[in-house]
Design a protein that fits this description.
Mean pLDDT of chain A: 92
Shape of chain A: elongated
CATH topology of chain B: Alpha-Beta Plaits
Order of helices and strands of chain A: HEEHH
Number of strands of chain B: 6
Strand content of chain A: 5-15%
CATH superfamily of chain B: Phage minor tail protein U
Number of strands of chain A: 2
Strand content of chain B: 35-45%
Number of domains of chain B: 1
Structural class of chain B: alpha+beta
Largest interface: A-B, 9 and 13 residues
Radius of gyration of chain B: 15 Å
Largest sheet of chain A: 2 strands, antiparallel
Distance between the termini of chain A: 29 Å
Oligomer: heterodimer
Low-confidence stretches of chain B: none
Helix content of chain B: 10-25%
Mean pLDDT of chain B: 95
Radius of gyration of chain A: 17 Å
Structural class of chain A: mainly alpha
Order of helices and strands of chain B: HHEEEHEEE
Strand order of the largest sheet of chain B: 1-2-3-6-5-4
Largest sheet of chain B: 6 strands, mixed
């Protein structure tokens, strides 16, 4: 009996799936955070609400942020990493007074099995 | 369920390296000091639970606890430097620490110096994961 080991091919598939899962998770995290901001009554001008963005090694949505507020510089993600962030320069104070992003991270962690399952089905 | 805020406050107040700096000015479930506080009153710590989970069939609580460290300037050091002195004392006390009701604790988010947008006072923002025994 012989076994053919498609290690490189498998690794390539896993790499692709991992990146897609991380991308979806980051987008989900930003979506949760936006809902949390509204529920926390943290909307004044709406700039912070609309300053949420995601970033992976290959892409980001930072350029889609609209509004006149001051933005923190874009955060970049390394290999096999994804970022969910809010660019409004005062967002950290809002997060410190009432968490919307950490809470979103926890909500996304609960969503992860479903995100992974959906990705496996798509493969 | 245990009173997590009280246990954490009592645990912090047991840490000599911290109380040397803040005395009993440790404020639970707050991100900013109590009304009327001024840095001239002395350094203080505020903390609030920002999330977390229960584990082992609810026998253990694993809250993520956000701390803000506030301190006045001294003759030789700016206020933001003193805030970081307090932050480091807090780190030394809580990193890999434990005590009555506290099973383990460790730094979750490194400290960051910020300036409060309304008062202009500096403070250091950081977070620890503190594992608590939830069996009264």
């Amino acid at each position: 009996m012989s076994v053919k080991w498609y290690g490189a091919r498998l690794q390539k598939m896993l790499d692709g799936a991992e990146d897609r899962i991380l991308r979806k998770a980051a987008m989900q995290c930003v979506a949760h955070a936006k809902v949390n901001i509204v529920q926390n009554d943290q909307v004044d001008t709406g700039f912070m609400l609309n300053s949420g963005y995601m970033a992976t090694e290959r892409e980001d949505t930072y350029g889609q942020i609209r509004g006149d507020g001051d933005k923190a510089p874009k955060r970049t993600a390394g290999k096999h990493r994804a970022i969910a962030a809010f660019a409004a320069n005062y967002a950290i104070y809002q997060e410190a007074s009432r968490s919307f992003l950490y809470k979103a991270l926890e909500q996304t962690a609960k969503d992860l099995p479903q995100i992974i399952k959906a990705e496996r089905i798509n493969d | 369920m245990i009173n997590a805020g009280k246990i954490i406050r009592d645990h912090v107040l047991d840490q000599a390296g911290v109380t040397t700096l803040v005395s009993t000015r440790v404020y639970a479930e707050r991100s900013v000091p109590v009304a009327g506080y001024k840095p001239g009153d002395g350094a203080c710590l505020c903390f609030q639970i920002r999330g977390g989970k229960v584990d082992l069939g609810s026998k253990v609580l694993l809250p993520s606890v956000q701390f803000t460290c506030w301190a006045p300037a001294t003759a030789s050091q700016r206020a933001e430097v003193r805030c970081n002195v307090l932050y480091r004392a807090l780190f030394d006390a809580l990193e890999s620490g434990g005590g009555s009701g506290v099973l383990h604790s460790y730094l979750e988010t490194l400290g960051q110096t910020l300036w409060h947008p309304e008062s202009g006072w500096p403070f250091v923002l950081c977070a620890f994961r503190i594992l608590l025994n939830n069996q009264e």
